[in-house]
Design goal:
alpha/beta; Rossmann fold; 8 helices; 7-stranded mixed β-sheet
Length: 206
């Protein structure tokens, strides 16, 4: 995979680089996030043998859980923050970690059964471009999952109250997804948006 780093393009990269050293001590913790994944495991429907792309992996808070879930399949975990990836690579997790910006960098020739964007989609500066890029790496009938442990209104309100480059980062709501997904050949098959969970599942119909 292309591992080119576009660190000078997006100010969010510097923002998250500066948080990386203490990221594992910040909420939501690894325990909170993996508890959510366990609770909604049937929704995720990630299977043994799947090849999974984890987008916005950060320091790998959930990567170990995902690697165990898909084994003997593979996890490729990407993040646009070099400092976050450096922290993740120190954890001896059975996954391939790459510093990569899904808004602008090619993901390579590997294709995936599922792509999981857990707690990261609002931070894509160009969400349409990111989706187009991700779809190229989905297998036929492959699934895209966007997930948060809170609903869109709570997520968007939280970002609006922050300073810095994530202040305007938005998780799309409701019918906004129809246009976004339709432009890249994805069919929305499930959308849950409630106070304690955002879960979007879309399938590649190409």
């Amino acid at each position: 995979m292309n591992n080119k780093k576009n660190c000078g393009i997006d100010p969010r990269i510097v923002f998250f680089d500066n948080l990386a050293e203490n990221w594992d001590n910040e909420e939501p913790s690894s325990e909170t996030m993996t508890a959510c994944l366990n609770q909604h495991s049937s929704l995720l429907d990630i299977k043994s043998g799947d090849d999974l792309l984890e987008v916005g992996c950060g320091t790998g808070k959930t990567t170990s859980w995902l690697a165990q879930k898909v084994s003997p399949g593979t996890v490729t975990a990407v993040d646009f923050s070099p400092a976050m990836i450096a922290q993740a690579q120190q954890k001896n997790i059975d996954a391939e970690f790459l510093c990569l910006d899904v808004c602008s960098e090619e993901l390579g020739s590997k294709s995936f059964d599922a792509i999981l964007c857990f707690h990261c989609f609002p931070h894509f500066r160009n969400q349409a471009a990111a989706l187009q890029n991700l779809v190229r790496s989905l297998k036929p009938s492959g699934r895209l999952i966007v997930m948060h442990i809170a609903g869109s209104k709570k997520i968007n309100g939280f970002h609006a109250n922050l300073d810095g480059p994530v202040h305007h980062d938005i998780l799309p709501e409701g019918d906004d997804w129809i246009l976004l997904l339709g432009q890249v050949g994805l069919d929305r098959i499930r959308l849950i948006d409630r106070e304690d969970l955002f879960f979007l599942e879309a399938v590649h119909h190409a």
